[in-house]
Amino acid sequence: MSASPDSAATTVIGACPHDCPDTCSLRTTVVDGVATRVQGNTAHPHTGGVLCAKVSKYTERSYHAQRVLQPLKRSGPKGSGQFTPVGWDEALSDIAQRLHAIAQRAPEAILPYSYAGTMGQVQGESMDRRFFHQLGASLLDRTICSSAGGEALAHTYGGKLGMRVEFFAESQLILIWGSNSIASNLHFWRYAQEAKRNGAKLVCIDPRHSETADKCHEHLQLLPGTDAALALALMHELIRNDWLDHDYIARHTQGWEQLKARALQWPPERAAQVCGLPVEQIQQLARDYGTMRPAAIRLNYGMQRVRGGGNAVRAVACLPALVGAWRHRAGGLLLSSSGVAPFQKAALQRPDLLGARRPRTLNMSQIGDVLLHPGDAQFGPRVEAVVVYNSNPVTVAPESVKVAAGFARNDLFTVVLEHFMTDTADHADYVLPATTQLEHWDIHGSYGHTDVLLNRPAIAPQGLARSNAQIFRDLAAQMACLDADFAAAHFHDSDEALCRTAVAGTAIDFDALLQNGFATIPVAEAPFAEGGFATPSGKCEFDNPRLVALGINTLPDYVPNYEAPTPAFPLAMISPPARNFLNSTFANVASLQRMEQRPLLELHPDDATARGIADGDRLRVFNARGEHVCHAALNGRARTGVVVGLGIWWRKQGDNGTNVNELTHQQLTDIGRGPCFYDCAVEVEKLNTP
Known about the structure:
By secondary structure, the chain is an alpha/beta fold. Helix content is 29%, strand content 17%. The longest helix has 18 residues, at 88-105.
């Protein structure tokens, strides 16, 4: 990819597409039609010219030697990875005929499966939704990452709303709760570091002694799934010491007396036993939070991936109102800011194409059980076809032994849109080559800041790759030969036209996006300084009576994990992402693989010694659902009784063809129907083989 001396370099402004709150603005240097470098955009304040190690290697993904660059048709057993190249016309015609035949009998037997492989509005949730709505396919409950926390926040604040991230730089106390920000929220970390240089105290709350914990003044290394107990104990101390903003509580909250009664049941001594923390550490955190102003909480989604994750988010979300932190622009809480995004989702997705039909909804976090279900009157028809895009469920979904078994069904017709031959692609009947972010149009919001970003294609599609939206346009054209409804004009909108549709009639000027690559959504500096929450009451709802209809406690409470340690499986396991991976997206990039080396399980030295395990030993990690083989890391990051399985490696990269999701289960969170990846009990033993 070296350029000649006479080659002229151009720069194209784009956006990072990945599931990360930072949503960086990118500058791609192109020479002779080849992308030679991807950098952060210095003109975008939140990016500040800085990218993470993953995305700075983005050209390695786009030009990867193993990239899928032509349509492939399965020629061997499912899971074998044996495929034969075919032309687009043959692939699309066959897929359309197969889907049409199923839809004629039972359209709900067809299931789309997608998530945040790209978070773009166009390549992630536009033409694909139109296609499946017209078809009448089953709807997908997209819960696998953040639904527990997102719905909990909506039940408390009225939506995914919170602080503006840039004002953390002015905070005097920052609680980094359930987040390894250095690895997964780098640009927030820059603001936190600025605050630290100005005298702020940083506190990390995390079961793992993460890279972020290394840099904070204090670390509360609580047991997984006990965050609500800690939050209630903090409330107890705020009440006992009268570190409360009584005026804010009276004017801008609902259910204070009920919450107060609950919190007074949680003295620090009780929470200390549940959380596995020293009483004094809880008391000191309460003192800091009650007396330091302004105080801010950066909450992240790791802590809601347990049975009581929704209640935990509700409990933490109540804290800022108790001390009046929302009065300050540098006070409050941020979990997600995506609720301010102005996108015209109905115009993009066209749910009206369903007409009077009301298809069932299937939960992506239970895809293993879904695909293995034989079908009945309550469930509906057995799933006969799955179209997977922007996701790799055989790798990332819980209880992957069942997921792999479901995708291995010979009677399941599977189409996968992909860049690489992932674990899921290996099980497909057709693999269709998709463009990377450097090759297509898209438009992005963010759940970590309040800007909208435009992505313009920097290079031509590689090989025969097509954008997701183009593939669904082309499938619709094939379907139109069988069903005239697919010939409608809304199946012809170009990717650029869809970008324009996303912000049409909003405060975002598309011409400004074309010129600058980003635009800021008008948002108040201190959104809840005078109340004005998006709830029906307009208040922060400690007590939410509407939760009764959902069978949920109206007040936040501590809900224990499904899987408490037992003699058979005495260790709690969490499985956060390895620092240089993002879900399963970068697990095949050679430079990042070299950094991570191999699948690891972090153990506390006491737990390792009790099992005769030394650093680097080959391990069997197991429970009743399965077993995973990896290597021991005694690096000081795990606490006693907890092991950390860093992910997410592809299954076929594992020593025994598995990854940590061989061990996780498909039970759901208390709120939001989300997965419980960090609510998992295991045992570990040393393997004597090398």
